[in-house]
Structure formats: C-alpha cells, structure tokens
C-alpha cells in the first residue's frame, strides 16, 4: 500500500471528511481491519484565510510547497491538496516534489465526462469561481463548458463557505440559498453541478438540485484510494 500525503486544515472540517472517506474506502476494498497509510500536514486555517483575502498568493505558495516537501520527506508516495481553492498553486507544488500530486479537478472532470455531461455549473469560493486556475483547467484540458453563478450569487456562496461551513455551521437557510443558486445555474443550461469547495458537501445533498452533483471531496478521496490501495 502506498502512503497518502494530505495537505489539510483548509478547513479541518473537510480534511476530516477526507480521512473518513479514504479509510472507509480502503476498508471496503481490502478488508474489515484494513485502513489507509496517511500522513497529514494540517494548517491553521485562520492564517491561510487571512493570506487569501490579502491576496498574498506568494506566501501561500511557499507554505504549500513547504508542506508538500515535509510530507514527501516523511514518506508520502502521493499528494493531495484537501481544498479546491489552494489548487491555485498546484503546479508549483508539483514542481517542488518528486511524487505525484492528484489534481482535484482531473478526476472530477473524468467523472463528469464519463457520465456524458459537457456543460457544468461550478460552485466554490470566489477565488475558485472567478479565477482561471480551476475552471480554465476544466475547459482547456477536459473540454468542459463551465458556468459560474452571477455576481450576487457568487458572493452568497463565498460568504456561506467562510462564515459558516469552515466553522462547521450548517443551517437550513443557507441550504435554501444554495438551492436557489443551483437552480439558476440549471436554468442557464448546466447539466450537472460541481461542488467545487470541499466544505460544500457538508451543506448540499443530492436532493437539493434537479441535476447530478459531483462532490469534489469524495471524488478526490476516491482517486487517492485508487492510487494507494490494491487488492
């Protein structure tokens, strides 16, 4: 079994889901007492959030590279960044290490294409929805047509992530707000929806939209299982 290196703590709420999903998947695949070999570097998300909103991506990149090198040095065979937003510096992280980094957008796109969808709505932080590092990869490398919510809806989605979900707060009012955002994306032609923030799965469930949802947390974790565990 390969050792999985997780760069987490962004937030720990979703990192805990990674740990749970990966271990459950390894147990299902290898037997009732099996569990995954995992190393995790967990950031203090308060520091990460401050740098994100200051726009200091250079400092954030340095921290991510340092974490990746620590995990590689500790014996990790494969790396995951347990957040969509911080894939903004995925290429820099991959260049810094000699082990593969599983980019969260790639297995997600493969699932979407295998299901026969070509036009998807993207939910995530404002950074993920508005900057090109994520939706650009989906379009350029995977040929998907990516829709993002309108300005007001993007602000709502972002606010709920940072003010509620990263703190483990889940409310029916916020679930309803997301339902409305998703419905508007569907009205614009989205055939499916990407839950492109690893905390959104804490709030949104399959029944909250009329089209299929692709949960990046679960898909990313499954990709780690596929690379690390063999029967």
UniProtKB/TrEMBL annotation:
The keyword Nucleotide-binding does not apply. Keywords: Isomerase. Gene3D superfamilies: 3.40.50.1860. One of its GO terms (molecular function) is amino-acid racemase activity. Signal peptide: none annotated. It comes from the Bacteria. Pfam families: Asp_Glu_race. NCBIfam families: asp_race (TIGR00035). PANTHER family: ASPARTATE-GLUTAMATE RACEMASE FAMILY (PTHR21198:SF7), GLUTAMATE RACEMASE (PTHR21198). Belongs to the aspartate/glutamate racemases family. This is Aspartate/glutamate racemase family protein.
